[in-house]
Amino acid sequence: MTDLLRTYVCTGLNPTETDIHAASLIHYTSTSEMFDALDFLLKQCGDECINGRDKNGSTPLHYAASVGRTKSCEILLKHGCKKSIKDNQGRTACDLAMMFGYVDVVELLREN
Q1: Phi and psi (nearest 5°) for 14?
Q2: What does CATH list as the number for 2-111?
Q3: Nearest Cα to 75, choosing from 106, 111, 28, 37?
Q4: Which of 102, 31, 111 shows the shortest CA–CA distance to 77?
Q5: Is residue 54 within 8 Å of residue 42, measured between CB atoms?
Q6: pLDDT tens for each residue of 45-92
Q7: What's the CA gap between 85 and 90, in Å, rounded?
Q8: Contact 96/65 with Cβ under 8 angstroms?
Q9: Cα 94 to the center of its chain, rounded Å
Q10: How far apart, in whole angstroms, are the C-alpha atoms of residue 33 and residue 54?
Q11: CA–CA distance from 72 to each of 4, 11, 12, 35, 89 (Å)?
Q12: Which residue has the higher pLDDT, 52 or 4?
């Protein structure tokens, strides 16, 4: 998958573009198990989109935490995402992980 993304980026794919929900490719990739792709995309867009917010104020970390993707959360943290950002309802990514019962994600976000 990373090779395909590399090809798309080289031919003009902009990983920072957003859809009608203001979510980027980073948001959606953070919910998947395509960890190499997430790492690759974060290297391409850097700080520009790692803390990008969708229409609900959710960042890629919110997306990853809400579906229990511990590895995605680790990658996002490694790239410098801010875990203190709250969505439009005042919830952090850790709050979402706690709400959905993802203990590993809660522990990760509390220790970092």
Answers
A1: -105, 105
A2: 1.25.40.20
A3: 37
A4: 111
A5: no
A6: 877 789 999 999 999 999 999 999 999 999 999 999 999 999 999 999
A7: 9
A8: yes
A9: 13
A10: 21
A11: 19, 26, 25, 6, 23
A12: 52
Domain ranges of the chain: 2-111
Residue with tokens 């917010």: 53
Spatial contact of 45 and 18, defined as CB atoms under 8 Å apart = no
**Alpha carbons 3 and 85: distance in angstroms, whole number:** 32
DSSP 62-75: HHHHHTT-HHHHHH
111 alpha-carbon distance from chain centroid: 18
Structure tokens at 101: 């019962």
> Which tokens go with 111?
């220790």
